[in-house]
Amino acid sequence: MKDIDRLHVLTDTELQQRYSHEELARLAIAGGAGVIQFRQKQGSTRQLIETARHMLAICRRHQAKLIINDRLDVALAAEADGVHLGQDDFPLAQAREILGPDKIIGGSASSVEEAALCRAGGVDYIGLGPVYPTTSKADAGPAGGLDLLRRVSREFGLPVIAIGGVNAARAAEVMGAGAHGMAVISAVCCQADPQEAAAELLRAMLGHR
Questions:
Q1: Taking Cα atoms as reference points, which of 105, 103, 65 lies closest to residue 85?
Q2: What sign does the CA torsion over 87, 91, 93, 99 have?
Q3: Residue 136 bears catalytic tag
Q4: Percentages helix, strand, coil for the chain, rounded to the nearest 5?
Q5: 186 catalytic, yes or no?
Q6: Angle in degrees, CA 206, 165, 196, rounded to 5
């Protein structure tokens, strides 16, 4: 099983405009994030690849991993550490064939059935959520709650990364429900001090274990 870090930060420049993706990567890593996920829906493919390469250089300098959200082509071109795919994105099994065994593939799930599809597709971790109601993702479905998190964490034999409304105040109950880690957007990117926000999150997560 691959080493899937506990704190994943998804960079965002739509919910906030103070920091670039690269700046958010630096700040989040300085705060203790081990995985940076580049998430951008707009822009040309060429621009996305260029930004991803800059972010990868930052991650390499600080022993963090770079995962590309949704875009297998960008992950390949930038030589990122992996890709995170939703249920309607590039098929997981084919992504594994293309990326090979060494790259990290995460899959999104919001139900037991979708978690099973992720496992069948050969993912290295399941991004489960939203656990709580969230405004960070416009396409997020209804909150699945801690019971779903407990079940998927217990039954599927894969690291489960909780997403959706997770923050430092909820870290103890999220980790107590069996999550391997947490993935956040606004809880770091939209805070006054993203570095300290990441550090506070990590302290809350590790304090439980």
A1: 105
A2: negative
A3: no
A4: 45, 15, 40
A5: no
A6: 50
Which 3 state secondary structure label does DSSP give 138? coil
Tokens of 6: 């506990």
Please, which residues have CB within 8 angstroms of residue 4's CB and are 6 or more apart in sequence? 35, 104, 124, 125, 159, 161, 180, 181
Q: In the prediction, which pLDDT does 138 show?
A: 57
**Residue 41 burial by Cβ neighbours in a 10 Å radius (0-12, 13-18, 19+):** exposed
Q: Which of 6, 65, 71, 108 is catalytic?
A: 108
Other Cβ atoms within 10 Å of 209 Cβ, number? 8
Q: Give the per-residue pLDDT at 140.
A: 56
The pTM is what?
0.95
- For the chain, residues with pLDDT lower than 70 are 136-141, 208-209
Per the annotation, the verdict on 108 as an active-site residue is: yes
Q: Point out the catalytic residue in the list 137, 150, 151, 170.
A: 137
Percentage of the chain exceeding pLDDT 90:
91
What CA–CA distance (Å, rounded) separates 9 from 38?
Answer: 9
Residue 35 CB-half CA count within 13 A: 28
* CA–CA dist 62, 80 (Å, integer): 14
